[in-house]
Amino acid sequence: MFESFGQLLIALLIALMEESHSPTPPPHAKIIFMPQPIVGMELSDMRQILPPDQPAYRAQQIYRAVYQQKVADLVEITTLPAPIREHLASEAELGLPTLAQRYLSTDGTRRYLLNLADGRTVETVLMPMDGRDTLCISSQVGCPVNCQFCMTALLGLERSLTAGEIVGQVLYAARDAGLLADTKRFNIVMMGMGEPLLNLPNVLKATRILCDQKGINIAERRITVSTSGIIPKIYELAEAEVRPKLAISLNASTEEMRQEIMPITRKYHLKDLMEACRAYPLRNWETLMFEYVLLKGVNDTDDDARRVVKLLANINCKVNLIALNPGPGIAYETPDPERVLAFQEIVMRSMPCFIRRPRGLDIFAACGQLKRNNLETITA
User: Fold this and answer.
1) Average model confidence (pLDDT) for the chain?
2) 270-279 and 231-238 are packed helices; what angle lies between their axes, rounded to 10 degrees?
3) CA–CA separation, 289 vs 225, rounded Å?
4) How confident is the model at residue 377 (pLDDT cuts 50, 70, 90)?
5) pLDDT confidence of 18, banded at 50, 70, 90?
């Protein structure tokens, strides 16, 4: 099999490296080997799970039932003959997440803690708004980026989500809130747990399923993915035929400060990030979004605002300001409202700049607060 001892040694080293990078389940998690879930399959995938003697339209029936009709159980696919349903039940699971806990905010925001098949949990947030709701979904269990102002960073990374686990959050939360009948009523932001661009293949597959007009049928312009600035993946995202809008977590006006509060950016420098943003191929209806979390006395000065304007010059963009949402384990403080307004005023002279209103603060559902918190533990 191996022509030389050197080839054998290389093969062993590669195997060891792959093993060392495989995610280790937490002590409390059960390892469960599940059949291939149907949620997360594209039409071509569904053809593969049918018996070879079945016509191609059977896969289309399954696809429509799962993503258009949004069935909650395989037995609900009544367009299929009973033997085919029995075959699916033995060969596959539907693969929707189940509810571990639901928290309801006084402002109407819902925070869902959802169970995955392997015993892990992930968080999803639904924010009702006038005219159109926003669903914030996760792309990983935990997060590897380690932003110092974010509670999710305290979890570390357990693993990335599959395309089905990403889509499953949308199907579950939208069903729970009664939004499935009209998908034009809500936007999706991949700004929950995780760094989406470090799970790009699954994020893009999920986006294709979400946007497919024969499936869930959500427009690309209503899906946004947020990144801390993984530069090679930004270029890769730009080449995708179907892709969400892009948001960049900037959060600092200098290289030094950005590396201090976002350690992963020591690999991805600010100058190179701005170059990637200027080269990003925007569609005719699209602008880049830059998110900026304001930390009291750290990155919220007038000089910071002026440097942000200079950094973003000649980029078709808008800026979203987020006053820090506090939480246990976070050393930074929220700036005064007057300081936030002063920062906004300076930036607005050169480009659109908005202040994101926090939602779900009382249930730890706001930006940067997702850490699978038990509210009874927190408030005790």
Assistant:
1) 85
2) 10
3) 10
4) very low
5) very low
- Scanning 229-313, the segments in alpha helix (DSSP H) are 231-238, 255-261, 270-279, 302-311
The residues, ordered by sequence, that sit 6+ positions from 209 with a Cβ below 8 Å of its Cβ are 40, 42, 67, 163, 167, 215, 216
Active site residues per annotation: 123, 367
pLDDT digits (tens, 9 = 90+) for 45-58: 999 888 888 898 99
Helix, coil or strand: residue 45 = helix
Per-residue burial over 233-243, b = 16 or more CB atoms within 10 Å of its CB, e = otherwise: bbeebeeeeeb
Measured from the Cβ of residue 377, the count of other Cβ atoms closer than 10 Å reads 8
Q: Which helix (H) or strand (E) holds 2?
A: none
HSE (CB half, 13 Å, CA atoms) of 375?
14
116-157 pLDDT tens trace: 999 999 999 998 887 789 999 999 999 999 888 888 888 889
What is d(CA 14, CA 9) in angstroms, rounded to the nearest whole number? 9
Q: How far is CA 338 from CA 41, 217, 300, 344, in A?
A: 49, 42, 11, 10
For residue 139, what is the DSSP state? S
Q: List phi, psi (to 5°) of 321.
A: -95, 135
Would you report the helix, strand and coil content of the chain in percent, each value rounded to 5? Answer: 40, 20, 45
